[in-house]
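sorry for the late reply, my laptop died twice this morning and i had to redo everyting from scratch. anyway the thing you sent over, i finally got around to it. pasting the sequence first so we're on the same page, its 266 residues, then the predicted structure underneath. double check i copied it right bc i was rushing
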Amino acid sequence: MARTRVPDAKIALSTASVYPLGVVQAFDIAERLGYDGLEVMVWTEPVSQEAGALARLSEHYGIPIVSVHAPTLLLTQRVWGPEPWAKIDNSVRLAEEVGASTVVVHPPFRWQRDYAAEFMAGIARRETETQVQIAVENMFPWRARQREMQAYLPGWDPVELPYDHVTLDLSHAATAGCDGLAMAKDLGDRLTHLHLADGLGSYKDEHLVPGRGRQPCADVLEWLAGRGFDGSIVVEVGTRKDSGDQREIDLAEALAFARLHFAARA
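ok and here's the structure:
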């Protein structure tokens, strides 16, 4: 009888997966469904920015915070002020204070030219000053009316860029028209954080429940398990249009998918 090996990596829930609900509801859902941890998306919600409040919630629910997503989205440009490096530095401090091992960041937008020019060097320098991993996330070209725009500098694809730590988002891979498994293999040990989601390859960033799109989500999980992956696997799916019951069904299904496929032959 074949035996399987399941590495120790935590399967966590992103607070973005419960939007428009907040951080408290994310902790509650994660605890009730059996997630191992939480990724906090720093948002306009004050609780998402406060280390003390987050630490108390983590202790109350018995759910560790494994990662902090810096407010580097278009919708969070005003969080912690307009200076992009302040957003990164505040996110690292927040991660240190709540015991998270990883900060997820997006690459600069094309119009942030000064920030983009020093981005790779700035990330590398900050990683020498903290035990927190700063994992740059893969993005995608923006497409509309059969036109494509490169919206990120130095680029949306981290595979060819010299980041020590990378977050692979499988929904973003779908939107970019990439094979998530090929990206994972190209990244190798630099892949330290996974956003588990799916997509059908449309121009929209869909963040479907894994298994409902065309990305090889199961293969990625099995490949990571075979390598003894010890980072974090974070479910980041869109439930904004779901009812309360359907949201929990979707998040339970995503967790079950992750637990089923994050295993390898011993």
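The chain has one domain: 4-137+148-259.
thats about all i looked at so far, will dig more tmrw
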